[in-house]
Amino acid sequence: MEVEHALDGIRQVSFYVIDGKERLANMTAKHGEIWAKAYWDVDTLVVERHQEIVASGLILHSASTSRITLSRDGQIMTVNHHILSGSFDESLTYERKK
Questions:
Q1: Domain span holding position 45
Q2: How many domains does the chain have?
Q3: Which class for 36: exposed (0-12), middle (13-18), buried (19 or more C-beta within 10 A)?
Q4: Model-level pTM?
């Protein structure tokens, strides 16, 4: 699975294999290596990510879990993010274009 994130003109692409095995998902000079595993939990796709960022001699750890579900009619996708470092939750809802 390929996921593209774009923010302020900066594009980042991560790659996931949905088999529950941890793999390198992305690597950038600015953000370092992003490791992830993706797997199904019944009808929910779960993506667990973690990374270490070295900046100005400091090592910052980041970890998150995303749970992605699709409505029964296939029209709405919900992505629930839980950011472990900082304990932050975010829920995004996407509606299919008609």
A1: 2-95
A2: 1
A3: buried
A4: 0.83
